Amino acid sequence: MSPSPEPTPEPLSPHTLPLALAHRTMRLSILEGSFAMFFINWTSGSVLTGFALHLGATPTALGLIASVPLLGQAISPLAAWLVGRRGRRKGVAVLAALLGRVLWALAALLPALPIPDEARSALLIALVALSSIFIAANGALWTAWMGDVVPAQERGRYFGLRSGINGMIGTVANLLAGVWLDRVGAPLNFQTVLLVAVGAGLVAVALLTRHDEPPLGGERLRMRSTFALPLMNRTFRRLAVFAVYWGFAVMISSPFVIPYFLNHLRMSYLQVAIWSTISAVSALVLSPTWGRLADRVGNKPVLAVTTFLAGTLLPLTWMLAAPGRLWPIWVSGVVDALVWSAINPGMFNLSLATTPRENRAAFIAVLSALTGVAGFLGGLVSGPLLELYRAFTPSATGWTAYHTLFATSATLRVMAWTLLRRVPEGGAWRTRELLKRAVPPRPPRHWR
């Protein structure tokens, strides 16, 4: 097999939906994503962290609980191969979403089991891992599916709008969960939230069945080719190196942001929900703006700027906070929206812009698998790193092991742009040009 050609701008193809059907599915996807946000937010973040702490999770267990969903992405190429053999994505995507969400009903039973706390934590990790296999398969197929549905010239605006709306829905979910978790005793508070999350997830699955699907393009690949074809593409390899590095760098600290809020800063669940609300409201404004900018200048320069900010300004706002001094955390909510409302859609759109439409599901699935393994390894390392830093951090100072962990991740994040600049994107501006346009030149001084 010879190396595949480098990706080019997508031509009109018979494997696309009529525009009316595409816009119908795009509207349905926003509604489906709104219900999915209840499931996502109530099976992750402060809910999952608090539930794990209630079950007696150690720092290493917390790192695993946060990272095993990424390991589940390693199954994505298998889902892509299965879809290629069947010639359709919809059935496999719907089934994966259904199984991944129904499994969470079992989590509500964990506090009632007559077993040691360590065993409950281990079972929670196993449950998260199993569910994540199906959720990740659905995510990879959904990415390729919606990449074929949404016209290329509308992707930035559409996914920015979808991200902003879903972020607002996630805000409502977080506030409701925060109030409930603070007012109702454990474990009933966690059990109720998890069961309602499953119900919302099933509504999202029902809406997914109503999406239209364009025909698959490309040849039906063998299992080996599903892995080999993307890796033979030089542009894809460059994208994968950047995405793998970024996923690892982020997950060095990501599993312990919420534990830092709850354990060190002594924030309540409602306060964590308020932080999420600040982020979501800010994202509602910023997401469409970033989307329009990415449509104009390309995804690379936007990602270069925002990944740098995610490694500098965002960790700094966390570390400036202290128990009783939470104003930097409220600032961090805005910064969180500033960076992630650009990074998440930007990574998504860059993966679509730099992969060929033919056999795109294989490309996206392999990228998902590689970044998932990298993120898992980052999360796997994060727990032991935190324990190590605790052993060498003087307790009398205001500096904690959390701060050292955040600084470690920040150092890695700020270097990501060096790998991003090697990823080609047709028509994208240079980052220097974007910064030059964004910052007007100083007027000349006139000396008398």
In a few lines, what is going on in this structure?
The protein is an all-alpha fold and 448 residues long. 72% of the residues lie in helices and 0% in strands.
Q: What's the domain count? A: 1
Q: Secondary-structure element order, as H and E?
A: HHHHHHHHHHHHHHHHHHH
Annotated CATH homologous superfamily: MFS general substrate transporter like domains
Average residue pLDDT: 86
How far is it from the N-terminal to the C-terminal residue, by CA? Answer: 72 Å
Tell me how many strands there are: 0
Organism: Deinococcus sonorensis
Protein name: MFS transporter
InterPro entries: MFS, MFS_dom, MFS_trans_sf, Sugar_transport-like
Pfam family, one: MFS_1
Q: What does this protein structure show overall?
A:
This protein has 448 residues and is mainly α. The protein has a single domain (19-214, 223-436), classed as MFS general substrate transporter like domains (Growth Hormone, Chain: A, Up-down Bundle), CATH 1.20.1250.20. Helices cover 72% and strands 0% of the residues. It has 19 helices and no strands. The protein has helices at residues 19-42, 45-54, 59-71, 76-86, 90-102, 117-149, 155-183, 188-208, 223-231, 234-251, 257-264, 269-297, 299-311, 313-319, 327-353, 360-391, 401-413, 417-420, 431-438. Helix 12 (269-297) packs antiparallel against helix 13. It starts with 18 loop residues before the first helix and ends in a 10-residue tail after the last helix. Residues 1-14 have low confidence and may be disordered. This is MFS transporter.
